[in-house]
Amino acid sequence: MRGINPCATPDPGFGTYGGWHRDVRMGQYLRPVRGGLRKDGSFDVMFHFHGHEPVRKEWVKAMTGAVFVSVDLGIGSGPYEDAFESPTAFEEYLASVETAVAKATGNPRAHAKHVGLSAWSAGYGAVVRILGQPLGRRVDTVILLDALHAGYVDGHVDLRQIQSVATFAKRAANSKLNLMFMSHSSIIPPGYASTTETAHLLTWYVGGSPRPFHGSRRRTMGLELISSYDREGFHERGYRGNDKMDHCAHIGLYAEVLELQVAPRWRTPKGYAK
Q1: Spatial distance between the Cα atoms of 6 and 20, rounded to a whole number of angstroms
Q2: Diameter over CA atoms, the chain
Q3: Which residues does 202 contact at the CB level (< 8 Å), separation at least 6?
Q4: pLDDT tens figures, 72-128
Q5: 175 burial class (0-12, 13-18, 19+ CB within 10 angstroms)?
Q6: What span, in angstroms and rounded, lies between the C-alpha atoms of 53 and 202?
Q7: Reduced to 3 states, what is the DSSP secondary structure of residue 249?
């Protein structure tokens, strides 16, 4: 038994981050009270979609210096897709974050170096849109926590709907120039492709197949690993569980992925609380 609701975990506070700031184009963001910038003014930033408060709790466990931007737009992937429908939407959003960080730090040279996208649940809609935009090529890292769905065509998952993510996955799998982590539960949704189906499709798309894990290995928040696949910068993990709490539990994977994969990759300058 997990013992706690995975969507209502204990609050560790804000760590090196002073609290939420809202002087950006959309949503809110965290920046360290001090530090986090390199000598040339560059900083690293993760844009997260859906579940900003529970995800924030995991972020501060693993990160101290990178900027964390988060957006919540309600239930369903549609609002996230609509918010980034314009080809310049993400470019404008990133620019607003750079402006806010420059103003807060007093450094006019502040600019983003490593750019990441992460999503839980419905937030994948924003990731699909952004990766298909011109500035999507700037994205270094993608993290999808039980968060990629698609429709069907002729009885198969419609790859065209998630082609931008598939293209990114292949770049990650063919080299370590990009990093992609995706997890899936065993939930079967009504009338559209599950995260299991989309994860397996992308694994196939990069030339692999999930390897089953036989055993009782336990993971964060009680998640039980049942399959995995790794190739260069592409990592897929499958877990047992088919209810709401199992879906929420995938948020608990975030800190681990950040600590083991993102932090050593970005090497963001350390942030300080004062």
Answers
A1: 22
A2: 57
A3: 148, 162, 165, 166, 169, 182, 236
A4: 999 899 999 999 999 999 999 999 999 999 999 999 999 999 999 999 999 999 999
A5: exposed
A6: 29
A7: helix
In 3D, which of 251, 259, 211, 252 has the Cα closest to residue 231? 211
Do residues 155 and 193 touch, judged by C-beta distance below 8 A? no
Residue 108's identity, in one-letter code, is P
Q: Is 102 exposed, middle or buried (0-12, 13-18, 19+ CB in 10 A)?
A: middle
Which token pair is 196? 């299991």
Cβ within 8 Å of residue 204, ≥6 positions away: none
Record the tokens describing residue 62, joined without a space. Answer: 């693993």
CA atoms within 13 A on the CB side of 87: 1
Retrieve residue 126's tokens.
Answer: 């924003």
Residue 99 Ramachandran class (φ > 0 left, ψ -120 to 50 alpha, else beta): alpha
- Tell which residue, 69, 258, 248, has the closest CA to residue 181: 258
CA atoms of 151 and 168, how far apart (whole Å): 19
pTM: 0.96
Structural domains of the chain, ranges and CATH numbers in brackets = 28-272 (3.40.50)
CA dihedral 202, 124, 145, 203 (to 10 degrees): 0
Cβ 241 vs Cβ 199: under 8 Å: no
HEC secondary structure over 27-64? CEEECECEECCCCCCEEEEEEEECCHHHHHHHHHHHCC
